[in-house]
Amino acid sequence: MILNSDTKKLVEGFLNEVVSIGINFKLQENVNKARVSSTDIGKIVTDLPTNGMSLIEILDEFKEHILPYCTNFSSAHFMGFPDSGNSAAALGGAVLSDFLQQNLINQSFCAPSATFVEIAVLQWLREAVGYKRTYPKDIWGVGGIITPGGTVSNAVGMMLARENKQAGTLENGVSSPSSFKVVVPKGIGHYSVKSAQMWIGCGHNLIEVETDNFRYDLDDLECKLKENKGEIMAVVAYAGDSRTMTVDNLDKVADLVHIIDSNIWLHADACHGFSLGFSSELRHKIKGIEKFDSISTDPHKVMMTPYTISALLVKDPENLKKITSLSDLIMQEEYAFGQITPFLGSKSWMSLKLWFMMKNFGKNGLDELITKRHYFAVELSSILKSNKNFMVLNDVEINSVAFFFTAGRKHSVAEINRINRGIHQRMLEEGKCHLHQFSIPDRGIFKKGEIVYPLRFMSGNPNTSKKDLHDMIEYVQTLGNELLLK
Ligand SMILES: Cc1ncc(COP(=O)(O)O)c(C=O)c1O
Fold it and tell me: What is the CATH number of domain 93-358?
């Protein structure tokens, strides 16, 4: 069915039903109603029907064979992974952006006002991280781009680093990848930086620096910078690493790098931590981030905004000129974003949902949201620390708590891992509650340097209550005690 004035009523009825399926899904108690198994593939990967199905038939099939298996990030018991995407305003913006079909590659004929909305959102994000707000006369003054995720934002950050190391590599390629090294903290980085380095022709040339409590060991950083002087294109620091969400000593890292080699590009992966910039109380934790040349941010992780939206911010907007795409297919007009969005052509209006969300919260609402999330995680951390059955791995920096169930006993690392991996597995199977799990070198709780598998809580949902936290703790203890007996 095509939308036109004849079908208006039918389409409205269909879309009302779609919205109510979405709302009811988000409000359902469980994280998962059912688990999809490999034998279910045949119910979903079917032949394309020869004759088209009606909208009702499609919805019926969707409700029966697909929806029950979807993971509900909005369940109050979904506590492991950002974010619930529960902002009503953001949901409205997301729906509208699909209706309005603006294409952010060009401004004049495909995104006239959308382009300015995107610029406004980028300026709000710049302010949050302490970059200068700009009033751009053209695209070259904007100082940022919207991308579909932190992975692309990091990749663009690495391209900028490469051009900064040697002008013209976009055109000429890289002839000696080993002089385009990237420095990262060992064992806690996100894979996207390493992948980006390889995607952009600089090979696998990472320098991994030892860490101390999930931050750069500054002595080792200094050593490695000196040892590799002249061969480093970028130093990457995390404002919220993917596992414990620790914020690095951004100020000290920036100063150290500048003293040793001021030509090195500083990139902050602040996909999680940029959010602290909205909190008047917590902003100090990212002090120094404004010294970095580029910053990745992921509103879809921390701003109650549905997937996907990320932004790469660049301290000096002019730098984006170095990686521009010139083509007669992209309008060479004042504000065509397509000129400064590598890897991307047509681009949906991702910023509209964030524009709705940020307008709806305002500065005070954002401040309260981010501060509350932090203290909710702090509260869980202190509850777990006072319960002898648990060990907490990290100090809460943003909104996450990584912990182990130990039953108050001493265990080998292998046994701790067996129990905690078992708990996570049972959680996935039962679908009632969700915590995340990852591997990380132990900071010395069990045996320094050994790989451990904690459970990870993240407060990404304002609907999660203190009672939900207590229920989760009870549940983990029940599962853990059952596994202990095995
Ligand atoms: C610190 C960090 N950087 C980058 C990324 C990649 O972000 P995305 O999944 O939005 O591409 C993640 C994702 O988890 C992350 O935690």
Answer: 3.40.640.10
